[in-house]
Amino acid sequence: MLVRDVLERKGHDVKAVSPHEAIEIAAALMRLEQVGALVVRTPEGALAGLISERDVVQAIVDHGPRALKLPVSDYMAHRPPTCRPGDHLSLAAKVMTLHRARHLPVIEDSRVIGIVSVGDVVRDRIEEMELERDTLRDIALSHQAAG
C-alpha cells in the first residue's frame, strides 16, 4: 500500500497551527480533533515543524503550567521526518522507526497534503495479515475438499 492510498482512505485534512500559537491552543486543537500531532505551518503555508502530544508533555514537565503559554516553536520538532504520497507504507514505517516518530507529514510539491501515523501503519499491517490468513484458510479448505 502506498502513502497516497492511506490519505485517500483517511482524508487529506491537515490540522495545523502557527509557530507563534501558544502550546495551550495546540493542545486544545489536538483534543478537539482527536489527533496526536499537528503540523506547524509558516504564515506562507510551508512546513515549519510538527508538535505532538509528547512535545506538550515535555513542555509541562520542563515548565509546569506556564508551559501552556509558551509558543509552539519552543517545543515543536523543527525538522520532522517526512514522506511522499508515492512512498510505500513500509518505507514510512521504517522512517518512523528510525526517527522514533509516530507521525509523518506527507509532502507533495513543497506542501503538506496529509499526515501518516503509526496507527495507519498498524491498521494496514493488520489488514494484510487478515488477508493472508483468509487466503491460507481458503487454500487449506480447497485441499481438504479435493483430498
Descriptive report:
With 147 residues, the protein is an alpha+beta fold. The chain has a single domain, classed as CBS-domain, CATH 3.10.580. It is built from five helices and five strands, in the order H-E-H-E-E-H-H-E-E-H. The protein has helices at residues 3-10, 23-33, 53-63, 89-99, 118-146; strands spanning 16-17, 37-41, 47-52, 103-108, 111-117. A three-stranded mixed β-sheet has the order 1-2-3. The model has no long low-confidence stretch (mean pLDDT 91).
Query: Helix/strand/pairing class, anyone?
Result: alpha+beta
Question: Which parts are unreliable, with pLDDT below 50 for 5 consecutive residues or more?
Answer: none
Shape by Cα distribution = elongated
Largest sheet: number of strands, sense, barrel closure: 3 strands, mixed
CATH class: Alpha Beta
Count of helical regions: 5
InterPro entries: CBS_dom (IPR000644), CBS_dom_sf (IPR046342), CBSX3_CBS_dom (IPR044725), Diverse_CBS-Domain (IPR051257)
Pfam families: CBS (PF00571)
Keywords: CBS domain
Protein name: CBS domain-containing protein
